[in-house]
Structure formats: C-alpha cells, structure tokens
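Summary for the steering committee. One of the milestones for this cycle was to obtain a three-dimensional model of the protein with G3I bound, which we needed before selecting residues for the alanine scan. The sequence and ligand used are listed below.
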Amino acid sequence: MPLWRYGVVGLFAAIALAQSAPPLRELAERRGILIGAAVEPNLLVEEPRYAQVLAREFSLVVAENVMKWGALQTSRGQFNFAAADLLVDFAQKHKQAIRGHTLVWHQQLPRWMYGNFSRSEMEAILAEHIRTVVGRYKGRIAYWDVVNEAIGDDARLRATPFDVLPDYLERAFRLARQADPQAKLFYNDYGAEGLGPKSEAIYNLLKSLKEKGVPIDGVGFQVHVDQGFSPQRVGMAENLERFARLGLEIHITEMDVRLVGGQPQAERLEAQARVYQEVLQVCLRQPRCKVFTLWGFTDAYSWRAASEPLIFDDRYQPKPAYFALQRTLQQP
Ligand code: G3I
C-alpha cells in the first residue's frame, strides 16, 4: 500500500524518509541496542527486496523456523544445516548479530522425539543436539534461546517429551554453556510482558535457576500482541525491572502487533504504531534491555499476515509503525 494511503501522517513520514533519515539499525546503535527481525532464509535467495530491506534496517537476525529441532534434526542423528547456514552467512556478511532460536521447545519437534525414550536415552539425545547445534555455530551466534515457552498459560511447567529427564531445563543451559562459553543464554516466552501469574512463574523459575548457579544470562519477552495492547496497563516496565534485578539481560524477542477491530484502517495503523513506540520506550528506559526484535518485518511474510502486524507492508513500504520506531530512537 503506498504511503499516502496512511493519511497525512503517512505523507509527512514519507517526506521524512525521503530526506534520508538513517536506517533503524543505525539509530538503534546510537542508543546502544540492537534491532532485529525474524527471517526465513529461503526468501533471502528468492526475493532480493527482502534481503535488501533486512540488511539495510536490522542489526540482528533470528531464524523464524530453521533452527528449531524439527528443522535441524529431522531423523535421529541426521542434521540438516543448509538453511541455518544460509542465514548465518548472510548475517556475517551484513554485520548482523544472531539469536539462535531455539534449543528446547515443546513445539516443532520431529516425530521421532515422541518415541518414549528412557531417561538415559533422553540425556544422550539432548546432549547430542545441543553440542552439535551450538558447537557448529560457536563464536558466531551471540545469543541462544536455550529454553522456549516452558511455562504454560496456566503458569505451570508444560508437559514435553523432555520430562523423562527431570532436570532437563538446567541441563540444557549447562550443555549450551559448555558448547559455546561466549554465547549468552536465554529463557524466552510469550504472554509474560506484564505483571501476572505467568510472568510470576517465569520469574520464580529463573530466580531459582540463578540461585542454583545454572548459567542463564537473559530473558526474552516475545510481545505478540494486538493494537489494543498497553505496556503501562500491564505493568511492563515494573515487570522488566524485577527481572533486571536478578542480573538478567533483557531482550524483546518476537514483537508483532495485530490489527483488530472495525475502525478505519488509518486509525488502526496509528494505534499499532503507538504500541510499537511504547514498547520500544520501555526497552530504551530499562538499562538492561539490549535487543528489540520483531517477528518478521514485512506483512507479506508474517505468520499472522492477515492481521498486518509488522512495520513494512506487503510491498516493503514503511508503515506508521516504522516511523514511530524511527522517531522514538531519535528522541533523547
Ligand atoms: O515447512 C513446512 C512446509 O514444508 C509445508 O509445506 C507447510 C504446510 O503447512 O508447512 C511448513 O511448516 C510451517 C512452518 O511454520 C514454516 O512455514 C508449519 O506448518 C507452521 O506451523 C510453522 O509455524 C511457525 C510456528 O512458530 C510453529 O509453531 C511460524 O512460522 C513461526 O512464526 C512460529 O514462531 C513462534 C516462535 O517460534 C515461538 N514463539 C511464538 C511464535 C509464533 O507462534
């Protein structure tokens, strides 16, 4: 959609962009943070525009799918790194940091993982996967989502095929640390941005891991929300602050903002822009928040494409949300 369709604000924004405002990655660097996007590596090859915008605007990349267990180890002991390698090579070429996503998750596991393994078999499986994957990218992947979404919406630990190993969580972090002592290791989850039972459970889990000496460096807040979200309303700044006090680095890891409701499109886009802006402000005001990552960047390839949740439209035109991030990064 051309920019003028976003109304007067869009028009002024377009003029501002034309006056060569620096790309987001440059503005973010001045503020001491990285700005990232989730990537599907096949598009880097198939769609030049996708690769161009990604390289120009973002200083960090994360694999949307290709570094998940089911993508990397489709049959036991057989690893396929082709797509992941493509992303790592692209990132290095364009001086982008990389978040590895993800080592232990109850979703996107290959079928063979549901094989009723014994405790010692699962011990070997977990160790082989983490050593092989983290070891392959040693020194090249700066941050790993070691454990993803282990706490359910009921604020309790989810059931997973890893459960036969009661200490799988801490074991995963220790294995990752051994495989690459330089990489920063994260716990990542959604629906935990604000104060509430789920974030409380995650806080208690991470606090207890820290107390046990488990090597965990940070926590990722995904921020999959809609245009009605308000970080103030849910107490996001206070929530991040208590995790910061545990000594953890904080990343916004998967932000996208769905358009919902029946208002005119221009209003919905403004509301969406405001949500991006407010969450970025929370990150910028929290000294331990170092990374702000979106779950994709163009609406053309979002996992929720129908609700246009990203900052470029499906023709790579910047939306009001793009300009809101640009402005916010420039504010003192
Ligand atoms: O790769 C196959 C393709 O071969 C097949 O033809 C096609 C048919 O459906 O499916 C393709 O796999 C899909 C995959 O995305 C790659 O496009 C899966 O069906 C689909 O389920 C998968 O969805 C991903 C989802 O995780 C899986 O749960 C989304 O793209 C991805 O955005 C989403 O990402 C998660 C994060 O990892 C964790 N946090 C939440 C976030 C959103 O759900």
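Key point for the committee: Residues 22-330 form a domain with the TIM Barrel fold (CATH 3.20.20.80).
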